[in-house]
Amino acid sequence: MPAGHPAPQPTPHPTPQPPLLFDTIGYDAPSRRIRKVINGTGSMDCTYHYYLDGQRVIEEHDGSDNLLKQYVWGLGYVDEAVQTAINSDP
Predict the structure, then answer these.
(1) What pTM was estimated for this model as a whole?
(2) At residue 89, does pLDDT exceed 90?
(3) Where does the chain show beta strands of DSSP type E?
């Protein structure tokens, strides 16, 4: 290396950053979850709306209000799920 010239430095490469994934949960006045928004997944970003009967979710819809799931609950216990119907073609 000739005198007076600095040694070559390696070119820094930026460290790849993982995608920023987050969700936002919406609640009503009695603190029941009524909405969930997922962002940062690219084409998998989505919104869910939950419709309740008391404390129980009875329907789940997407951001376009298409029905995704319906829940039927028993009368014996708070968490007694009797049936879950999934709409495979919203």
Answers:
(1) 0.71
(2) no
(3) 22-27, 33-39, 46-53, 56-62, 67-73, 81-86
